[in-house]
Amino acid sequence: MTGKSSGDLNHRHTHLVLKYAVVSRLILISLILLWRSLLSPYDTSASINPSCLSGSDSGSASVYFPRLASAIEDSIAWDSVYFVRIAQCGYEYEQTYAFLPLLPICISLLSGTVFAPLIPFIGQRAVLGLSGYVLNNFAFVLAAFYLYRLSVIILKDSEVALRASILFCLNPASIFYSSIYTESMYALCSIGGLYFLMRGSNNFATIWLALSGFARSNGVLNAGYICFQTMHRSYEAAFVKKHACAALLVLISGALRSLFIVFPFIAFQAYGYFNMCVGGTSDEMRPWCKARLPLLYNYIQSHYWGVGFLRYFQVKQIPNFVLASPILSLAFCTIIHYVKLWPEVFVSLGFRASSPNKELAASSIPLERSAGPKSVGFSVENRSDAGQGNSLRRRKPAVGEENYVIQPSEDEATENRGFKPVTIVPFILHLVFMAATAFFVMHVQVSTRFLSASPPLYWFGSYVMASHCLSKRWGYIIWTYCAAYILLGSLLFSNFYPFT
């Protein structure tokens, strides 16, 4: 296949992914409107909107279309109430600091600029809600786009990447990606950041990954990808190229990038401490203010939501464990599949090559041209050699020129690049930590949306659906699971019934 024809194929697949992303959002929004018209909400307290404590809001002003305004406001369900309230009034209460500020800031900016002319017609709160819906659905479409591009770089197979991206468009947590929740913003920032990291655009990647930590607390874990990159590059500089100064520079650069990613979350904790603790007397201070390491987020999660290690292991929570069992099972199978495929690579954290398990590799993701990394650390190729087919000439890069992985051009034939198992390692390690946290620490039913932005789930799901070694029923089970949770989620969540 020529580079031009492969580029055309990638463009067609990109358009197809965008089409699926847009259509899936339209279908989900239609389902929400349908269920809202057929059923009465279980809880209507979200429509109560007291004035901001600062008295700066104008939400009580009369509007031209009160019924439309009421419909939008009544659709603001569950945690969406917090995000809209923060966008409107700021952080007024201690428990609101559990919700990080990226989404409220974006909602406030969009409602105050693009949608500001709509305020006289439907009111401020309805405009805030509308801004949140538009923002998150648009972010989801971009997240699907970046997942496809990231998958092509990692898997070296546009067909597998396409299936994985379509599966993401219909993922079981879809209701949250079209609601005023942080899932869409987090997915966009984290997947987009990883895409730029794999392309070698480290500065863009660091900014995007930092924004993911400004959207959700677990975004700080994305610093682990930088640490993994730094570990391999510093090892190569110190022990392969025998260049101690270069290794030191790599370590310093990696440390600074990692700190930059976790800084937004730390800064927000400092902001909460300043607002809640500074200026009050010792008797007025909340307990967490007096702690040696005053972490507001941890206190809120434990005090208000009962989050903690094994605290959710109760008989009455068995239904919630059942609700989360599909996504946790999928995560477990994903981890086992890739670890069994390249055990030596995972045990050595990518420092040792491994021959793939032949039985598993028979119909798995592309393994042609490279059974494992050819040298310690990440394999590097000269960018100027791109597009020369299988007869690529390699040169030894200058110190500091290496990238995280191979650098394909935007429209380059993916068949010209060999799959590197080492690139999968940090994704699986990240999934292991996330799945363990969801099962042992968090409210387990949140696992469905907590893990929904993890690319390996969709890569493995794509493999299952196309595998000749597995029964087709497993592919049908995955699609049925996604469809059932989309229907169930749109029905329950939109009408204020508990769902993940």
General description of the model:
By secondary structure, the chain is mainly alpha-helical. The chain is 60% helix and 0% strand. It has 20 helices and no strands. It has helices spanning 3-38, 66-74, 80-89, 102-112, 119-122, 124-155, 158-169, 174-177, 183-199, 202-215, 223-240, 244-276, 296-305, 318-341, 343-347, 358-361, 425-440, 447-450, 455-466, 472-494. Helix 14 packs antiparallel against helix 17 (425-440). The longest helix is centred in the N-terminal third of the chain and has 36 residues, at 3-38. The two termini are 45 Å apart. 44% of the residues are buried. The model is unreliable at 358-417 (pLDDT under 50).
Tell me how many strands there are: 0
Radius of gyration computed on alpha carbons: 24 Å
> How much beta, percentage-wise?
under 5%
Provide the number of structural domains.
Answer: 3
H/E element order: HHHHHHHHHHHHHHHHHHHH
Cα-to-Cα separation, first versus last residue: 45 Å
How many strands, which pairing sense, and closed or not: the largest β-sheet?
none
Which structural category fits the helices and strands?
mainly alpha
The overall average pLDDT, rounded, is 85
Form type: globular
Total of helices:
20
Helix content: 55-70%
Q: Which oligomeric form is depicted?
A: single chain
**Spans with pLDDT under 50 lasting ≥5 residues?**
358-417
Membrane topology: Multi-pass membrane protein
Subcellular location: Endoplasmic reticulum membrane
EC number: 2.4.1.-
Keywords: Endoplasmic reticulum, Glycosyltransferase, GPI-anchor biosynthesis, Membrane, Transferase, Transmembrane, Transmembrane helix
